[in-house]
Amino acid sequence: MRLVLSSITRLRHNPIKPSQWTTALALGRRPSSSLSDLETEMTSRELSPLLDTNDPHQAFSLSNALSDFLPKGSNLLDQDAESHSMPRGYHLVYFPPETAQDPLLPDGTDPLHSPGEPFTRRMWAGGDITFRAHGCRLFPGEIRCQESITDVNIKGNEGAEKVFVNIRRELAYPLEDQSYTPKGKFLIENRRLVFMRAHQSNQASAAQRAILKPPHKPTFSHKLIPTAELLSTFSDLTSNGHRIHLDKQYCQEVEGHRNLLVHGPLSLVLMLQTLQFHHKAQAERDGKKPYTLKHVEYKNLAPLYAEEEMKVCLRQKNPHDYEIWIEGPDGGLAVKGTATMMLRKETEPEQQLPRGYYYPAPHPGPENSTIFTTAE
Predict the structure, then answer these.
(1) Which ranges of the chain does DSSP label H, i.e. alpha helix?
(2) At 103, is the pLDDT very low, low, confident or very high (cuts 50, 70, 90)?
(3) Burial letters for 50-69: b for 16+ Cβ neighbours within 10 Å, e otherwise?
(4) Cβ neighbours around 162 below 10 Å, total
(5) 146 forms bridges with which residues in the sheet?
(6) CA angle, corner 74, sides to 187 and 129, nearest 5?
(7) SS3 for 66?
(8) Which candidate, 257, 301, 271, 255, places its Cα nearest to that of 124?
(9) Do 48 and 98 contact (CB within 8 A), yes or no?
(10) Which of 150, 181, 244, 248 has the highest count of CB atoms within 10 angstroms of its CB?
């Protein structure tokens, strides 16, 4: 596993005390912009490309972390071993933010996408991902992520505004001449973050919000209970020091939540793994060739908490399209989305493995085990 931001460890063992929060907010902050010019300022920010190595060990670490929380036999690394592709959704544990620990904001987040004060609370509102058919081959070579802030919307009454920020990410591998061109793109993602003012004690808590019930019953569902250990591991894998996933006292006394919050990207990975496992199993039962995931769009509606049951649900609308959602312990919608599948024959020519690189291949030994083999 790669080395992650040392600030994550620092946050676990040395959380900011309640008396320090106000001081920290004053000292460690991004300068604020007036609401009138906020969109112009944020969309003009130049974000440096993020470079990473699509090392299979990072994917293995995620697979191992999720293995006890997903349906038996849903290991996507084994399912994708024949194509040597990075499983759909696994890109979320690559491309850590290139931010030193000192500039981190008091809540443990980086300032790159923040609108600045007074919008000091950040949540993952949703997003969408479009996958190139064969995706990215899982071998240790360089890959690049180009980020840009494409849209900023301010909603809500004066004094209770929310700032919605859309971040576009384009992931690509280099061509033979080591250049990055549109031909090398294997994924385009839009992340939608929402920034809010500091929580006030008179505001309604998450538990007091209206419960939205799903309109349909699922055709397949899977229940699990995310643990604090799982959240900690996912924070490490994604180099995410956000306190709402690591510091229970901070969650309760500053953010107004009852426990640690499950990451938005973690909820997404759980949905995508469950969807792909169920779809492949159903296709095999029907004697058909399974499709691969082409596009997913999702929205986070309510918090999910550590140590509380959640239910991942699927409903197939037609051979290509699914409704996907997650229910909280009260049966209310926490995440809802849609997913579109495609036949592998719709794909472009496969990316070729460089000679001597390594990729995962099925091992003839114990179930769900993997070894490295060499490309000839």
Answers:
(1) 6-13, 18-27, 38-43, 56-66, 76-79, 228-237, 248-250, 264-285
(2) confident
(3) bebebbbebbbbbbebbeeb
(4) 16
(5) 170
(6) 20
(7) helix
(8) 301
(9) yes
(10) 244
> Per this entry, what is the length of the chain?
376
- Other CB atoms within a 10 A radius of the CB of residue 245 amount to 23
Token pair in block for residue 304: 């999910």
Q: Is the peptide bond before 118 cis (omega within 30 degrees of 0)?
A: yes
Residues 124/193, Cβ–Cβ less than 8 Å: yes
Quick check: 241 and 104 in contact, CB under 8 A?
Answer: yes
- The upper half-sphere exposure of residue 355, i.e. CA atoms within 13 Å in the direction of its Cβ, equals 1
| Percent helix, percent strand, percent coil in the chain, to nearest 5 | 25, 30, 45
Inter-CA distances, 166 with 11, 38, 83, 115, 163, Å: 27, 13, 32, 12, 10
Contact 106, 239 (CB under 8 A): no
Between residues 290 and 334, the one the model is more confident about: 334
Question: For 26-74, what is each residue's pLDDT tens digit?
Answer: 434 555 556 778 999 999 999 989 999 888 889 999 999 999 999 987 7
User: 205 by DSSP, 3-state: which?
Assistant: coil
Q: Is the dihedral of CA 214, 264, 30, 203 positive or negative?
A: positive
pLDDT value at 23 more than 80: no
CA-CA distance, 298 to 339, in Å (whole number)? 9
Q: Which amino acid is at 201?
A: S
- On whether the CB atoms of residues 75 and 67 are closer than 8 A, the answer is yes
Beta bridge partners of 195: 122, 163
> Do 278 and 293 contact (CB within 8 A), yes or no?
no
Amino acid identity of residue 144, one-letter, is: R
Contact (CB, 8 A) for 229 and 64: no
Q: Are 352 and 293 in contact (CB under 8 A)?
A: no
CA distance 87 to 83: 10
Integer Rg of the chain from CA: 21
C-alpha–C-alpha distance, residues 124 and 92, integer Å? 13
* Cα atoms in the 13 Å half-sphere on the side-chain side of 109: 22
Locate all alpha helices (DSSP H) within 53-194, ordered by sequence: 56-66, 76-79
